């Protein structure tokens, strides 16, 4: 990789396995929606699955798992700030 | 100038001074600003959703948008596979995967336009109420980002075909990939907040 601080890759699942995981999680979400599972269970499951999907894409497809932690901070810190803002907006 | 200082200057020019590539760092900082941009829009949507209630969300076609979500997830896979291909010097495979990404991006946009047209037929428009305004602003801006990504993918494909991207020089592909995956992540969040949690 050109000029990036990349840590050694160990035990990394293949991109195909990650893709399969993303598809399965999305299919489960659609299943929950079609079966009309009621909140709060459905809400908790949707948040859990979407969080997992975001983590999978960021960690493996965007290479945050093996790249410099600086990049992770650049992505996660604004996201945490956003979470605080979003919770505040809902609470107001 | 000491040898150490000269080495540092050389590393800085090469983009290694912090152990980080400057172009990649720039892209990550841009993504950080985009997190805040979409964060503002999502916060506004959630605020109205929980204070006013959005009965219109029951009119949304979750299955159609679910298929569109699969399309975007597939495009993320093709982009990361294209990056692997160019790093291995497999130019033909790289071009084919990037072309597939472009087609998937166009398919996503077509699905989104179909959904927008359907909602307009049902009377949900940009000016019909708070739901219409916040929904079309949020999903419209995301669609605009996908459209920019498609144009970027076309430019990257042509660079690959001209031979300026290869096994040694492929940072442009990685940076494009970061943008595309981020747009995918935004959609994962939007799909959950707008279509699934009603």
Can you walk me through this structure?
The complex is a heterodimer of chains A (92) and B (198). With 92 residues, chain A is mainly α. Chain A has helices spanning 15-34, 41-61, 69-91. Chain A has 2 domains: 13-61; 68-92. Chain A contains 3 helices and no strands. Chain B has one domain (23-196): Four Helix Bundle (Hemerythrin (Met), subunit A). Chain B has 6 helices and no strands. The interface between A and B is large, with 47 and 56 residues.
**Name of the level-1 CATH class of chain B:** Mainly Alpha
Greatest interface (CB-CB under 8 A), with counts per chain = A-B, 47 and 56 residues
CA distance, first residue to last residue of chain A: 46 Å
Residues in β-strands, percent of chain A: under 5%
Largest sheet of chain B: none
Q: Which structural class matches the secondary elements of chain B?
A: mainly alpha
CATH level-four homologous superfamily name of chain B? Cytochrome c oxidase, subunit III, four-helix bundle
Instruction: Find the count of extended strands of chain A (DSSP E, 2+ residues).
Output: 0
Described by its quaternary structure, the protein is heterodimer
The CATH topology of chain B: Four Helix Bundle (Hemerythrin (Met), subunit A)
- How many helices of chain A? The count is 3
- Radius of gyration of chain B using CA atoms only: 20 Å
Q: How many E strands of chain B?
A: 0
CATH architecture of chain B: Up-down Bundle
Poorly predicted regions of chain A are: 1-8
Q: Give the DSSP E fraction of chain B (strand runs of 2 or more residues).
A: under 5%
């Amino acid at each position: 990789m050109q000029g990036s601080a990349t840590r050694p890759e160990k035990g990394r699942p293949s991109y195909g396995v990650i893709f399969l995981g993303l598809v399965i999680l999305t299919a489960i979400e659609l299943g929950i929606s079609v079966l009309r599972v009621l909140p709060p269970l459905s809400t908790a499951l949707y948040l859990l699955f979407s969080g997992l999907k975001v983590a999978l894409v960021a960690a493996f497809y965007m290479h945050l798992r093996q790249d410099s932690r600086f990049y992770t901070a650049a992505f996660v810190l604004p996201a945490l700030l956003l979470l605080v803002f979003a919770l505040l907006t809902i609470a107001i | 100038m000491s040898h150490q200082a000269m080495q540092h200057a050389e590393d800085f020019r090469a983009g290694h001074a912090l152990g980080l590539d400057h172009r990649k760092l720039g892209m990550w900082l841009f993504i950080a600003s985009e997190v805040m941009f979409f964060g503002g829009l999502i916060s506004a949507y959630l605020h109205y959703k929980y204070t006013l209630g959005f009965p219109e969300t029951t009119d949304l076609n979750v299955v159609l948008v679910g298929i569109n979500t699969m399309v975007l997830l597939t495009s993320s896979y093709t982009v990361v596979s294209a990056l692997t291909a160019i790093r291995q010097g497999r130019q033909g495979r790289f071009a084919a995967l990037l072309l597939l990404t472009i087609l998937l991006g166009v398919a996503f946009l077509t699905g989104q336009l179909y959904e927008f047209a359907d909602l307009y037929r049902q009377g949900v428009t940009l000016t019909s109420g708070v739901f219409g305004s916040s929904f079309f602003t949020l999903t419209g801006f995301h669609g605009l980002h996908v459209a920019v990504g498609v144009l970027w993918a076309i430019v990257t494909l042509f660079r690959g075909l001209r031979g300026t991207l290869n096994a040694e020089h492929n940072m442009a592909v990685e940076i494009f990939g970061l943008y595309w995956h981020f747009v995918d992540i935004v959609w994962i969040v939007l799909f959950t907040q707008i279509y699934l949690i009603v």
